[in-house]
Amino acid sequence: PQGRFDVQLKGAGRTAWSRNGDGRAWYGPVLREYLISEAMHALGIPTTRALAAVATGETILREQGPLPGAVICRTASSHIRVGTFQYFAARNDTQALEALLQQARARHYGAAQTVEQFLSAAVAAQARLIAQWMGVGFIHGVMNTDNSHVGGITIDYGPCAFMDDFVPMKTFSSIDRQGRYAYGNQPNLAAWNMAQLATALLPLTEDRDAAVTRFTEIVQGFGDIFDTEYAAVFARKIGLTPNQETGALIDGLLKIMADIGADFTLSFRTLALGDAHAHLGAHPDFADWHGRWQAAGPAQAALAQVNPAIIPRNHLVEAMIADAVAGDMQLFHALHTALKTPFAPCDTARFIAAPSPQEAVTQTFCGT
To answer: Cα–Cα distance between 366 and 345 in angstroms, integer?
Structure first.
């Protein structure tokens, strides 16, 4: 790839922002981020990339007991977050805030000549990103402003997960007891993060009252941009163009999936393969839905290049981590290879199948 990239270590030790933590990481969060960030890249979703994962030979103490230490080196066009802007705004350091804005513009939005244009570009990029997350059933897990990248890329894979059975307000993160970071709440959280970015940018404006009015309009526009991007993502997933009829078909399919707890990834993949009846036919409304969908003329041949056959399923990721801690990296390498081509048919049935009730993972953890 062309351009300038930053590298960053995660798990290498304490920093000024570690608070009371040790700044270390063990195999679990390092290998999880490596595998899932690379899978997201293969799915075509903007993300940090994993450059390397290294075992440190240290013993890391966590709730589970002593664990083997590791460090991940990740790379991105920048690691500038909404929280980075908030940091300087909270310190009333306008000079540093201006320098940060210029850096972020140069890295991500070169055409943005004003603070307003920068904010507009960031809001649009964030809306596109969240729509893409929703399209693969991805749940970030901790969408605070420190985990919100101003360039609209996925950053900080902590207690993240991909949905198996479709539950619109699904959560996984062990710290999310109120559903704040649920799948269906991610657009709201992203809009809130953009409001915090707008607030942090206010010291850089000449007419604060006018800026508040205009910034509010920009942030409130997040919903319309997201709705458009979401409609486009899901229209592609069922092989149609976005319009009112397609929107009704998408809503109908998602309701069917939610009613019977159908697997998110397999539901869309089976549409591509032509065997959706076997997967969704138990719902009394599916036959009617399928007839209306067929009548709309879907580009079914293209669906296999839109709906993945394989995602990094939570139970496989957890099994990979357990094997790695025991000294066996075979499953990591096998998953990593398979996830490089998520839309191609996969020969390993285990990697495609939904988990059994005994295998299902219901909670994920940060670990760093």
So the answer is: 32
Q: Is the CB of residue 229 less than 8 Å from the CB of residue 127? A: yes
pLDDT of residue 176: 82
Gap between the Cα atoms of 188 and 130, Å rounded: 10
Tokens of 162: 């991909």
Residue 272 CB contacts under 8 Å (≥ 6 apart), including other chains: 300, 303, 304, 306, 307
Query: End-to-end CA distance of the chain, in Å?
Result: 29
Q: What DSSP string describes 133-148? A: HHHHTEE-S---GGG-
Helix runs in the chain, H state only: 27-42, 82-90, 94-108, 115-136, 186-201, 208-220, 222-237, 244-260, 264-273, 276-280, 286-295, 314-325, 330-339, 349-352
Q: For residue 224, indicate whether it is catalytic.
A: no
pLDDT at site 368 = 61
Residue 190: which pLDDT band, with cuts at 50, 70 and 90?
Answer: very high
Q: Evaluate if pTM is beyond 0.85.
A: yes
The four Cα atoms 258, 130, 42, 300 give a dihedral, to 10 degrees, of 50
* Residue-range domain boundaries for the chain: 6-76, 80-307
Beta bridge partners, 53, equal 72
Q: Is the pLDDT of residue 1 over 70?
A: no
Distance CA 219, CA 216 (A): 5
Q: Which of 98, 134, 101, 127 is nearest to 193 (CA)?
A: 127
Res 287: pLDDT: 97
Collect all residues with Cβ–Cβ distance below 8 Å to 112 and sequence separation of at least 6.
105, 118, 120, 121
| Contact call for residues 157 and 37 (beta carbons, < 8 A) | yes
> Which entry of 6, 22, 93, 146 is annotated as an active-site residue?
146
